[in-house]
Amino acid sequence: MTTDWREIDEAVRVPPGAAAMLSKRDPVSPHLIEDKDAGRASLKEDAEAIDALQDALWAEHTRALLVVLQGIDTSGKDGTVRGVFGPCGPLGVNVTPFGRPSEEELAHDYLWRIHGAVPKKGIIGVFNRSHYEDVLVVKVRKLAPAKVIEQRYEQINAFEKHLTENGVVVLKFMLHISKDEQKERLQARLDEPESNWKFNPADLDDRKLWDEYQTAYETALTRCSTAHAPWRVIPADKKWRRNAIIAAIVRGTLEEMAPAYPKPDWKAGDFKID
Ligand code: ADP
Predict the structure, then answer these.
(1) pTM higher than 0.90 for the full model?
(2) In the beta sheet, which residues pair with residue 238?
(3) Is 46 touching ligand 1 by the criterion CB < 6 Å?
(4) HEC readout, 67-102
(5) What is the DSSP-derived secondary structure letter of residue 117?
(6) Position 2 confidence tier, pLDDT thresholds 50, 70, 90
């Protein structure tokens, strides 16, 4: 990436203690990366770098990276996984989707299933939806009492602090799309036979609650953007720009973590292989 990733990161990051201002954030944001070919080239380069860094992370075996992807239907969570982590292969990246909780999961506290999926040392874990659903869909659909939901923001902050103090770096990306873009993507699922399977009539019910979801996101992003685990709002109307920005931040974060291959306590000359 020609622009320093930190400049882009600064632009998309929700400063801890500040309002997320979702409605003021442009889902297109052309100024962040202007040229599509350059964006595609940087994605390719960054995705390969992420693969190499993950190899070192695994060899070092002391820390993990957790990438949380949140966004409304059609915001591109699956596409991000494919575009940014596709080149990594299955060895070092674990992707966990979180759908409607099972009976077993509902019998536990809401973080139980989340904690169980946190990546172990050496692994990059990607959450496709996450514990944030418990303050998003659960709030919008009134699946739990308001008082219970209200307590969760601080619980989530404490949980993420616990993770970061125990070797898990937490990167949270909200994929921000416009209502018009969602309309186009839903329409494409109806129009394109190969995309028909992705169409779920229930998504239209959620679309009717667009404003309620935006408000719930605003609250979650504002209250849970912390110094230890800040939120990033990624302009996601253009898929190539979304992927390029996320890849740049993941790469930059891994480079800052600087995983190191352990030094062997032997020399090659110590051994003879017959
Ligand atoms: P996706 O839309 O992510 O591709 P699905 O079609 O399986 O995958 O949708 C998952 C659904 O599960 C979403 O509607 C989401 O809101 C819902 N969900 C996720 N977590 C929870 C939760 N904790 N409580 C209720 N519903 C949830």
Answers:
(1) yes
(2) none
(3) no
(4) EEEECCCCCCHHHHHHHHHHHHCCCCEEEEECCCCC
(5) T
(6) very low
